[in-house]
Amino acid sequence: MSDRDALLREARDLRVDQRVQEALAALARLEALHPRFSQLHQERGHCHVLLGEAEAAVAALREAVRLNPTLPASWDMLEQLHRMVGDTAQAVAAAQHLAVLRQLPSEVVVANSLFADGDLQPAEEVIRDYLSRDGGNVGALRLLARIRQERGDLDEAEAVLEAVLDRAPDYHAARLDYAMLLLQRQKHRQAREEAERLLAHDPDNRQYLKQYGAACIGLGDHEPVIDLYERLLAGQTQSETEVADLRLWRANALKITGRQVEAIADYRASLVARQDNGVAWFSLANLKTYRFNDDEIARMRVAEARPDLQDMDRVYLCFALGKALEDQGDYELSWRYYERGNAVRRASSRYRSEVAEACVQRLKQVFTAEFFAARADWGVADPAPIFVLGLPRSGSTLIEQILASHSQVEGTQELTEIGRYAGELCGRDPGCGLPSDPETLLSLTAEQARLLGERFLAETRTYRRWGRPFFVDKMPNNFWHIGLIQLILPRATIIDVRREPMGCCFSNLKQLFGTTNQEFTYGVEDVARHYRAYLDLMRHWDDVLPGRVLRVSYEDVVEDLKGGVRRMLDRCGLAFEPACLAFHETRRSVRTPSSEQVRQPLGREGLTQWRHYAPWLGALRDTLGDALTGYRA
Known about the structure:
Blueprint: H1 3-16, H2 20-33, H3 38-50, H4 54-67, H5 72-84, H6 88-103, H7 106-116, H8 120-131, H9 138-150, H10 154-167, H11 172-184, H12 188-201, H13 206-218, H14 223-234, H15 240-256, H16 260-273, H17 278-286, H18 294-304, H19 311-327, H20 331-347, H21 353-366, H22 369-373, E1 385-390, H23 396-404, E2 409-413, H24 417-426, H25 446-459, E3 470-473, H26 482-488, E4 493-498, H27 501-509, H28 524-544, E5 549-553, H29 554-559, H30 561-572, H31 618-624, H32 627-630
Parallel strand pairs: 1-3, 1-4, 2-3, 4-5
């Protein structure tokens, strides 16, 4: 029995023994550890019923069914309590919920309840056992898909939902699940199509509208969602939390499209709706150009010090405070907040440096010079893609902005297609997301390589709005997949943007990425070892594909912009255009953390920023070792 279940059993036993106050104390301890455990709130409702505290009982039971709508006992008690106080409408609503549950197979109710409380393994066992007897129950199949999705098996979840929709195309709840899964899998075009089908059925459904907006964002189509979120805000919002979220999402879209003043106003409005909204504080900091005043810093410090703060809110606030104090020149305290935020974030990460290092070795064993020589005429000979890759915070957004200022080049975003193909072919390590079995590429045929190249060009067409001959994919992680790129797109341009190691690694340590992105950046040793692994693999690509990758030094571009621009355009086969030197004047959506920086003229301050933190970066310097000088080799 888990500690969670043991504490619940203790509280139940105390209640049965009429020791209700002690039971409530046990439930308080349980809530501190597992606040989203629905059955603790149901048990609290039982306790308040015994004490004759109807209002407190209703509040506890409402929280129980909010977290887990499949609790018959909670709905039963709510019906009785509402009737007792004369609230007929609420009593009828509770009775209707209870009636629906009683019509469902008991196994489905049990599995749903287990799923709601995070008990995924027993929930799956119950629902699979039920499906072995009633395999056509689409509700049970939908639940199985949700369980598999939560357990990380997105392939099975997608297949099950597709089967459900084949049998029941009007099962809108399942279609919404399917659209959300497609979004998670970064199949944004399909996700938007599913959202459009749902909206055709119910054009004012707030969930469908949010799903449509999220898919548009995934496709880089930010302008429409600004008005969409405004429309949702003008409607019947459900809570201050929803207002905070909508203001945040609208601010993000405004930021990406270059409307910074309006974005700041919406970030602040999000904080009015929810004062401890860590992600809104961080988003202001992540503008890079915003400066917090003393009052804002004090408010953030008070919020971050709260012992009951959710971990991710603490992480967001720590990174925001790190930036705010850095701007004030208080580097020691700034570092302490960066360090604390990284530690909390690292605790939930599955990234392990040894996995990345082992992946480098496997890739080197597969992708030999002989391997490429035997496949020299493979793939699609289309020069349109320009891959800008390397490590995050190396200057890749700057390079993309420069190239996208050319009349023949379109900037898109950090596209996920190449990484997805690698995952389909080679599998993914569950912790790092890196290819787990690159040896499978030894059996790839010329026809399969050609089809993959054509698939990439077809799937990325969605992101190419202007019809220009060339387009940039600036996913930095594609440095892992240069071998695959060579096989399927042998004429694509590949640019490796490299930044000196101390500046690059420090910039990563003080940058909070998306919840599952770039997880190597949350520890000094991890980021240093990842930098070394990157150098090792890039040296290998240079050895087996000599001259194939153009290396661009961030520092060199800062010192000689015109020379760097000419060199890159020459590699792409493009004539020089002065607009590339005035890149900061180019109006386009930029999604990365550097979005506001590349809208300003090039400065040198980023070259030595890390030196302010040198007293606390000794371990980083030691772990980088000979990479400190060897990165230029």
